[in-house]
Predict the structure.
Amino acid sequence: MMTSMEMAQFPILTAILMSTIVGMLVILFIPGDRTRLIKQVSLSFAGLGLVLCLWLYYAYDVQKGGLQFVERYLWVESLGIYYFNAVDGINLPMLLLTSIVLFTGVWTMWDLELRVKEFFALTYLLVAGVYGVFMSMDLFWIFVWYDVSLFPMYPLIAIWGGTRKEYGAMKLTLYLLAGSALILPGILYLWAQGGGHTFDLFELQAMGFSPLVQKVAFIMLYLGFGILAAAWPFHTWSPVGHVAAPTAVSMIHAGVLMKLGAYGILRLGMTLCPEGLAYWADLMALLATIGIVYGAFVGLAQTDLKYVIGYSSVSHMGMVGLGLSTMTVNGINGAVFQMFAHGVMTALFFSAVGYIYDRTHTKMIPDLGGLSKTMPVASSFFIVAAFAGIGVPCMASFWAELLVFISAVKTYPVRGIFALLGLVVSALFMLRVVQKTFYGERNERWAHIPDVPLFLATPRIILVGVIIFFGLFPKLMLDVIQSAVVPFVSSL
Amino acid sequence: MMKWVLFVPELFYVSMALVFFLFSLRKKVEQKLLYNTAVILGAVGLVVTVAFARQHGMLFFDAYRVDLFSQVFKVFLALGTFWVIFACSELRGVNPRQHSEFFMLISICTLGMMMLVSSAELLTIYISIELSSYALYLLVPMRRISGDLYVETGIKYFMIGVTASAFMIFGISFIFGVTKSTYVADIARVLPTVISEPAAIIGLILTLCGFFFKQALFPFHSWAPDVYQGAANQVTTYIATASKMAAAAMVIRFVGFSGGESSLLVQLLITLSILSMTFGNLVAIIQKDLKRLLAYSSIAHAGYMLIGILCLSERGFSSAVYYAMAYLVMNFAVFLVIIMVAEDGRNLQIKELAGLHKRSPILALTLMLGLFGLAGIPPTVGFTGKFLVFAAALEKGYLLLVIIGMINATISLYYYLIVIKAAYLLEPVNPYPPVRVDGRSRAMSMVLIVAMVYLGLFPDRFVALTEAAARSLP
């Protein structure tokens, strides 16, 4: 399968993973009162991860496609667990997304004062889990990293959170772990049906399960991961959790963690149970469409900025689900691209709101108003994110949504049109929020607040840059995604 | 003569009990001397048990079987005993005049349980189980806090315990009646042919009742919350860790040798497992006392362990052994924190943990990892244990059972999170003093933290060991 030369190369994926774990350990050994040093160390480890991921993205050979940078060692012999990391066109954009969001997220938390050391250590643990899920090709490790990425959310929200933080934290944790209560049996079921001697994703895929097994396993994996992807009607934890979480955690959570759910459906459910997917695709498309429309309408009624973003996330993640359920090259391309685009976009959203909230101590839309006159730069970040959310051309999400809707209307005409209507409503509520918050009467209460200093603006500028860069050059991303999706769809 | 080599660990604990017997004859014993002797002897006992772990053979007219399975459990028992003794440096909850007796009874109880895991004959099993039980019956009412007596708990434990023993000996008589033998090896040969007879099933189930009682499986659990709450913290730790090991070992051996897959037996075990998990977890939610909460969680964990056992496969038994080991480590970690925080030996309410992360970061971390382990969150050893157990169950096709188990794990996470929340989030109403953690306990906490994560992430060698142990079962 792979030559010895490929095995002998520098284990860059392990290095990326270790950049977070070592980062966490280093932070743990710094005395807690040296907050500045902790932040500097955090940012350098995040930067290291970003550099490694950028290099990985650059070094990935699109022409060759397939699995690259493979690291595979036997881990637990009697069960057939492998330490198996590799990248292909689907997880490569996800790794890049994770490193971007981590880097900018750490940077936006520069003003943090409360229990700094624990915050960054837990954040690094969370991101270690995210990296791990995205790069592992072994079911055992995917599940381990998945859970590792979930449980730090509880302290992160409950300690540093805002509105109803303890309720939000508990609800989120229990919902997501209830999801893993379905994922683990699903994984073990496939393992047992495959003879009980390997957790290697591709060995299992080659076995080809019977249709009944695929149907049972797919629905378990879909529901389990669907909770994290905020698929309607399992989304209720998501807006509550987002609202309760501190800025960087919202960014990482909405930007990256929710993608784990969609990624899990794609990587485990769809890869291992194509016939199960075919059987359940109808339901998946239906739930996704309801999610798009419902998220948009509920978002329309919100007065809390973070709730608005939370519901728009439900709507946007519905598009990912819709794209996946079409089972076409364009649809899945669009879904993966949307995962990336939405990740960067929500990170920008939350970081923009984070700054406004830190200074004004409110995120209620009626209390704000006319902010673009007092803090034009801070406002512009939110407005760019809102445009990206609507899917304005030149933004990365435009291409993603275009691809999803083209294939959705073709495969599911009625649902596709309803979903398009949902998009129109979401455009309406985004513009309404922008208008009420940033334009109109200038609110004198906030007149004294300074605009974002350059240092704090930098991470947001990076996010804006990423959105526009991939909006102008979508080919750079689509070629990568396509290199994995085309063989994947032809194998369905 | 060489055969006595097989019996060395047991002989060691006999002599250890004798040493403390001699101590107890003296009028006044220096507390520090007693403790140091106990720790050293406990450590030597652990080393001796590990050194003789590779022995195998039969003793006492084949009534006593030494194999890898029994030796692995003896190592767990010696480890648990050592840890419990280690945590006894203050021993505030126990009457100072009875400290020598306390250590003597712990040694005798360990001896009884070591004999139990090796017994291959029904009457030997019965005698060993009684030897360990009587030591515990005496240990439980030893508690003294500011003059209060805890005899009630002791009597309750004793009454329920002897009832369970009566059931067990009644069951043994049935088995003897059906198979005409008290030797497990003979019974294992005969039993599969008669397993469909009601008398055999009744005998087997009644005998298992005795072990289920020790393991606190629903509906034989009623003693656990009261005893956990009423006994001194160190004694509770011993009951919750070492004593659980012996019970688990016996259930594995006993279910294992029933051999032929009686669907009635399997269905009964599935029912017990589901009831035990669900009952334990649901009742634990409303507890305010940490030890009581852990008692209910132990009922739930007995249910998880039973999932592995009822698979009746080699992988199932080995996963149950691994789970037992995981449970030993995690549970001890949590109890160590209880003993350290409740310095005067009182019972600990959950809210008393408030602000623990400031009062002692290392204990808070130990507690958090221990509880996450009990909830089955990776990368802790508790997750790997659950993973192995569920994997074994799915190999047998018990999909629904595994889903119920996972839902239960989610429920359990709720109350473990409440405890973690108390330690990390709540600010104490009255400022509690910082917890004194001496260097020894700090080192022990470190060892436990590393062990919990290491066993969770690198289980390969230990899984291989438990599989070898399961293979050595008759």
